Amino acid sequence: MSTDTAVPARKVPVRPAGYGVVRIGARARFLLHRRSALVSLGLAALLAALCVAYLCVGESFVAPTEVVKVVLGQPSPDELVVGTLRLPRMVVGLLVGLAFGVAGALIQTVARNPLASPDIIGVSQGAGALTVGAMTFGVTSYTVLPYLSVLGGILAAVLVYVFAWRGGLHATRFVLIGIGFAVALRSVTTLFLTKGDYLVAQQAQIWMTGSLNGRGWNEAAPIGWTLLVLLPAVLWAARAQRTVSMDDDTATALGVRLGRVRLGLVALGVVLASVATGTAGPVDFVALLAPQIARRMTRTAQIPLLSSALLGAVVVVLGDLLARRLFSPTELPVGVLTAAVGAPYLIWLIIRGHGGRSGGNA
Amino acid sequence: MKTTGPGTATDTVTSRLTARGLTLAYEDRTVVHELDLAVPDGRVTVIVGPNACGKSTTLRALGRLLKPAGGAVLLDGTELSRIPTRKIAQAVGLLPQTPVAPEAITVSDLVARGRQPHQHWWQQWSDADERAVTEAMERTDVTALAERSVDELSGGQRQRVWIAMALAQDTDLLLLDEPTTYLDIAHQVEVLDLVRKLAAPAADGTRGRTVVTVLHDLNQAARYADHLVAMKAGRIVAEGRPEDVVTAGLVREVFGLEAVIVPDPVTGSPLVVPGAPWKPSAPSPRKAS
């Protein structure tokens, strides 16, 4: 223990390790985690490269220079292939990936559990149950179904939240009840599938694996607007994460209205996940994988939102690129690929015994 | 530890934090019954009592972690429930019994989070933040650990880091829930010495911090407290200066233990020595190794 008579001259100011202070104007100051910033830049560059590759590769190869021309709106002979067929589908994949990445990060933060993600705790299953249910009852319009799946996802999340609430939100109970609901809703979906018409079942099956096939500007617009409108909320969430990642008592002692902040974070995550599911179906494991990989890259104490979002987009765009080309001319749904990578990862997470931090002095 | 600093006549002591008719319950089990307490400003108040007497529960209520079932906790005369939680956080710091740090967080990052109640989203790191964090880490002697991960620290170091975080919050009042649990005796003394230093008046005569802490060890409580509160079964049995409160009668009443009270050979504070010597109940057939 240092005595108070220590030499006062050599006072080195302490800043949070790894952070830089960014000054904007006279008063505004932001803490910037240097490594996270670098990781985000790297991921953005990787994503840009993947996007160009995505637009180049296909039935016919298009030169990158032509691709850039089309994206910039200049006349090009490849206008149809790139601008009409590949670009809209890629944009949908990009937005879906961003949304899943952020959604997973937020829900994992609140649950303090890497297993918690919208496709594990029932959001995707809720969306699936309602969508497939509607299909069996004859709703086939692709302008209605996405909204139904958003509704289904949110309803499932509300149910899980209500059942997990007992004078407060207990993280482990939230995850377990979510898993329970996920199983129950999956069996409801199966019930609809067996009751329904054969053709409907086939259509539903494709939707349920998560596919970008046939998605275009009509699907890109709603999710794009949703992301834009929710951007301020996401910025708020990034700041709120700092205290929510502590234990309840400490966070409350620091003046955080924990109940409201958590509800806000979960609600934001659920809306994003539901909209993404409504757009492309449940692209499994993206929301689970992206935040965990991003965190290992940035080595931050909380899950980095921007890096998670970018990584989500990288996974979906790369996944769909491979899904299109791997067994060409047969196209796989992108969800098959993400599941092929994600499922072993999930098993590894469980084997490592990383099912959440329950203890204090671990 | 008889601190008789400038102007500490016991009858003029003020109290920012008080409890009035405080009743606390978990579900329908009442743990604390109509408790009245005035926490003396600028002093170290220690709450002691047997297990499950409601001492930690009382501390949690003083720090608004537990809503009263009856009565109220008042800060500067206003009920805590009427003050925005962020405002409370600017006046009252609290360290729970087993705080949990986010995984892989660095020491300086954790301590910096103590500044939360003073920050805004557009002002995440002011000069005041930097000063408070630097000073808190110096006082707790964790500056050298700034870049280390909290996960890899020893128990004693970790506890000092948590105290640093609470100090960085820069509050007048500091509530510590059993800060010596899980620490060996040397680290216990280290933490308690630090607590005393926090409450000591500054060189320019300004009042030190007000500390309320729950301790398990009656002797440590008697040694470090200015104001000792003894609780039993959810009620205060006695309170006052340790030398007035800690008597053989009180120890018997509160802990049900026959004890002899002698002056602590180092500080002169009351020292509790269990009165009945241990006797082998029957001659053991086994030989001692």
In the CATH scheme, the class of chain A would be Mainly Alpha
Q: Can you tell me the residue ranges of chain B where pLDDT is under 50 for at least 5 consecutive residues?
A: 1-10
Low-confidence spans of chain A: 1-9, 355-362
**Number of structural units classed as domains of chain A:** 1
Name the overall outline of chain A: globular
Q: Can you give the mean pLDDT of chain B?
A: 89
Give the proportion of residues in helices of chain B.
Answer: 25-40%
Strand content of chain A: under 5%
- Give helix and strand order of chain A, one letter per element, not per position: EEHHHHHHHHHHHHH
The chain-level structural class of chain B is: alpha/beta
Our Rg estimate of chain A from Cα atoms comes to 22 Å
Largest sheet of chain B: 6 strands, mixed
Quaternary structure classification: heterodimer
Compute the CA-based radius of gyration of chain B.
20 Å
* Total count of strands of chain A: 2
Number of strands of chain B: 12
Strands of the widest sheet of chain B, in order across it, are 6-7-8-3-9-10
Termini Cα gap of chain B:
43 Å
- Anisotropy-based shape of chain B: globular
For this structure, what is the CATH homologous superfamily of chain A?
Answer: ABC transporter involved in vitamin B12 uptake, BtuC
- Main interface: chain pair and counts: A-B, 42 and 63 residues
Membrane topology (chain A): Multi-pass membrane protein
Keywords (chain A): Cell membrane, Membrane, Transmembrane, Transmembrane helix, Transport
Family (chain A): Belongs to the binding-protein-dependent transport system permease family. FecCD subfamily.
Subcellular location (chain A): Cell membrane
